[in-house]
Design a protein that fits this description.
38% of the residues lie in helices and 14% in strands. By secondary structure, it is α/β, with parallel strands linked by helices. The chain has a single domain (13-276), classed as Spore Coat Polysaccharide Biosynthesis Protein SpsA, Chain A (Alpha-Beta Complex). The protein has a seven-stranded mixed beta sheet, with helices on both faces. Strand 2 (39-49), helix 2 and strand 3 form a beta-alpha-beta unit. Helix 5 (143-156) runs parallel beside helix 7 (187-197) and helix 5 (143-156) packs parallel to helix 8 (218-240). It is globular, with a radius of gyration of 18 Å. The termini are far apart. 42% of the residues are buried.
Length: 278
Amino acid sequence: MHENPGKQVTPRVAVIIPAKDEAERIGMTVRAVKALPFVNLELIVVVDDGSADDTREIARQAGAVTVRHTVTRGKASSMETGAKVVAMRAIRGKTPPLLLFLDADLGESAAEAAPLIEPVLKGEADCTIAVLPKPAGAGGHGFVLGLSKWAIRRTTGWNPQAPLSGQRCLTSAAFQAAVPLAAGWGVETDMTISLITAGFAVKEVPVNFTHRVSRRDFKSQMHRLHQFIDVLKAVLKLRARRVHIKRRKFLEAALNQKPGMVYRVAHREQIPESEKTL
């Protein structure tokens, strides 16, 4: 993708970083993002979701555009706020930028995000999802991950490796197809199902990100409980709306899938509206 190393490539990517009480790492994350190819340095947006520390000021000093929620509204709301800021600041008449969503605690490893960008720039996929290395010392039991995988597989046929990963790059059109986003920790599961059932192509990409991992203490276990509840709520809402694809429609794609392949059930225009929400 780097035809002229050393020269500035055309900036086509906006970066949105939801953040809450991330003063310790947000500066490193923003500075790392600025080194990525294709990133528009004027469209690095940090959404401070009601932090009690200096997250916003540190992000601003690092070079990000910052916006603050006066009260905590959750990750989904922060993602939507960031996308609105990008839309307002993007150049009218130009192709809308790609949206790269990254967690605030990635630190220096945010500079590893280039593999997420390239498949979307090339038109190979509408949305890429990062598969992170398995962290040492993680304390989860897999209940939340298992629920998310089951829901995505049941409704779309896709069997993802990292359905809860928040590190994603997608086209503006794909993002608009996914809004309104599900609240809380159900946002990734809901987004994935919404995109695939709308006919968008998704792809998982291994990326060498590192960030904090939850342990086995009481606070971490409560965090996982809230995650499970939020994912379950998102799944139940999708089920109430009967959002899924008929099994006969996704069977061939499901049988042929392999890790790292683009997954698409059908082109968007080939999926009748009645079959997206049966």
